[in-house]
């Protein structure tokens, strides 16, 4: 990749007992671009972003973020540096209002300035289209809206790198289209690392694609290159004819 | 009217009511209310950790007792003046909470309950072990002459009530303010979903430790105030029973609400007081009422009110 990288991993490896979930992953994330991480189930995608975000401890290898070695920082410190992460399995504050969910995400930076905080929360809620639900209890929202809320919580942090772990899983077709629009509108504003199974989303949003298979990087490139790659077709695309 | 204005009015209203009650209540009930306010401070300290942060401790008696003995021993054996001894009690409780927190917060859930229970049991045994100074189970009395503050007699009914009310007001307003700050909101977030809170970039561990220190120190205020106003320091207050009480009060009154602890203590106190005038089996009545409340008002009295009527209740 020619673009400047904002995040880089070197030799990142995770072993669960004798099983290698990731082995020796060298990866560069292009700044300001949308990069999709794809691969068959069990390819190690979630483990990989878990190690990048600090949720999962790496067995060996290093993670660099904006030139700084963050391999040994706890997750919350990495978030403070400008990473944001949305969970594969929806993780919100179900007992609190939608507004408070987003406010919690924004407050770490804007806690000392109530007006700016309020403006930020409103702006984010409007942007993802759930401003009219601000006072609802988050746990009462539909599944699709909870996914959107989680994305809103990521955006509210103004992340430098935004990691989305299967954000469209379980969303209706129309919601997926809205999501695609949202990700496109973020291009240039932030850097996105997207784990995604839905090939439509990948092909319509990603600038670059990295394919993981059996814990290793199988291929990297633009969507067109990946589409044409024979190895990828064999390992992944070949098994999903609708893609 | 905004919710924050309503809650300010509510808090000031509660305090105003407590002032008025002193003038209208017969001395017996005013005396009870002094005790209730002191115990409510203890319950509020507990509530910060349990109700707001979601950490269930079964060992808070050690912080109550640390405040009590920190105050009583420096006053009695050290001959310290009352204000200084009081501060010593609070500092003892806060410092103990720091040490316990560093160890116990490495655990969570049931393990946290057991670890705090064990530490509190250790605390009780320490009190007995140093019986030479603490007089063990028997305890010691703080003489009336020692319970003076600049010529103001803290053993009189008025002195007691005023002191209890001032201390209660400070803790009540202070904690009500604290839970509205970004720090307090983050504690609630930890209670709701700790993993998510951490992945929003908050240091959950340090937040929990700070919550425990404040909770311990406030419990220490209650312990020291109890010794000061009622003149007795004894190992009973370090027993497991005194760790369970604040849990019950907070559950009854409404965990995670600012007025819940006061309501819970008040309710429980008068439940036992009233039922014991009718029968010797008053604990049976108390037990049945507690069971009924848990079944029909699982969020406590203030919690149910918030759910059904006053959504703005802090």
Overview of this structure, please?
The complex is a heterodimer of chains A (243) and B (314). By secondary structure, chain A is α/β, with parallel strands linked by helices. Chain A has a domain at 83-158. In chain A, 37% of the residues lie in helices and 26% in strands. Chain A contains nine helices and ten strands. In chain A, the strands form two sheets. A six-stranded mixed sheet of chain A has the order 6-7-8-3-9-10, with helices on both faces. A four-stranded antiparallel sheet of chain A has the order 2-1-4-5, with helices on one face. In chain A, strand 4 and strand 5 (68-69) form a beta hairpin. In chain A, helix 3 packs across helix 4 (114-128), helix 3 runs parallel beside helix 5 (143-155) and helix 4 (114-128) crosses helix 5 (143-155). The longest helix of chain A is centred in the middle third of the chain and has 15 residues, at 114-128. Chain A is globular, with a radius of gyration of 18 Å. Chain A starts with a strand and ends in an 8-residue tail after the last helix. The mean pLDDT of chain A is 88. Chain B has one domain (18-237). Chain B is globular, with a radius of gyration of 19 Å. Chain B is built from 14 helices and four strands. Chain B has 314 residues and is mainly alpha-helical. The model of chain B has no long low-confidence stretch (mean pLDDT 90). The two termini of chain B are 14 Å apart. Classes of the chains: A alpha/beta (243), B mainly alpha (314). At the A-B interface, helix 2 and helix 3 of A face helix 8 and helix 9 of B.
Compute the average pLDDT of chain A: 88
Beta-strand residue fraction of chain A: 25-35%
The structural class of chain A is: alpha/beta
The amount of helix of chain A comes to 25-40%
| Portion in beta strands of chain B | under 5%
Rg of chain A (CA only): 18 Å
